Amino acid sequence: MTMHGLFISFEGIDGAGKSTHIAGLANAFRAEGRAVTLTREPGGTPLAEKLRAMVLGDPMDPLTEALLIFAARRDHLVNVIAPALLRGDVVLCDRFTDASFAYQGAGRGFDLNVLSTLEQWVQSDEGLLGDPAGNKPMRPEVETVIEPHLTVWFDLPPEEAALRLADARVPDKFEAQPVEFFRRVAQGYADRQQGHPERFARIAASQTRENVWQAVRQVIVEKGWLEGPACHE
Ligand SMILES: Nc1ncnc2c1ncn2[C@@H]1O[C@H](COP(=O)(O)OP(=O)(O)O)[C@@H](O)[C@H]1O
Ligand SMILES: Cc1cn([C@H]2C[C@H](O)[C@@H](COP(=O)(O)OP(=O)(O)O)O2)c(=O)[nH]c1=O
């Protein structure tokens, strides 16, 4: 049994414009007959959503925060992402592990080596590859670490993101951080892209919504994953 679905994550600092385009992309895939699982991190399962509320609402030390986020990620992988990939769905995930490296690592200064270890443990496919009836786990020859096939990174200067968010919503724990925090987070994403150039697609997110949408769609079309004419929603 292989995971023959498509796993795409969306990243960027708060206010970069991710959420604006994820639903449009889901519609574009559905219009071409693909089943889509639309999900987000932290969250995506009842347990992970509870952990999300704690992480975004309560002050805590960086290790506690990282452990809760990766615990939520494991639950999400086990219960939503891996089953969807096994079914052959397109999984569109609003943030994944790159956000942990950008926010906890670069933003909060948490140890990147510990994050790498958590990434290896939590995203191991061990225990995730069940048979179709969900019975005994079938072990592959070589254990692999599940990660997105593509990460669409909305790159926007922190000052512009702050202007966009000023009136848009009540800030959560991270959104309330000063612009210097988001400069570090943005650098964290840039570093992550350098480490994984084949997986990352950078989108210049300062453009108009329509141009950003065309750029996002173009990336997916170039991968050969979407064909149809451009249309939003
Ligand atoms: N290209 C754009 N230009 C100007 N404003 C935008 C653009 N894209 C999104 N916005 C607005 O910026 C705010 C943040 O967008 P959102 O998609 O919620 O960002 P994110 O999900 O990355 O935090 C929203 O008010 C949204 O309407
Ligand atoms: C996935 C993830 C998110 N986050 C943060 C980034 C965001 O500020 C917050 C929630 O992300 P997001 O869902 O993008 O928030 P919203 O829907 O309000 O735009 O969680 C981390 O700090 N680490 C992580 O690993």
UniProtKB/TrEMBL annotation:
Top-rank taxon, per record: Bacteria
Pfam family, one: Thymidylate_kin
InterPro entries named in the record: P-loop_NTPase, Thymidylate_kin-like_dom, Thymidylate_kinase
KW Transcription (keyword) present: no
EC annotation from Swiss-Prot or TrEMBL: 2.7.4.9
GO molecular function: dTMP kinase activity
Binding site for ATP: G12, I13, D14, G15, A16, G17, K18, S19
Domain Thymidylate kinase-like: 10-120, 143-214
Purpose: Phosphorylation of dTMP to form dTDP in both de novo and salvage pathways of dTTP synthesis.
Family per similarity comment: Belongs to the thymidylate kinase family.
Protein name: Thymidylate kinase
Lineage of origin: Bacteria, Pseudomonadati, Pseudomonadota, Betaproteobacteria, Burkholderiales
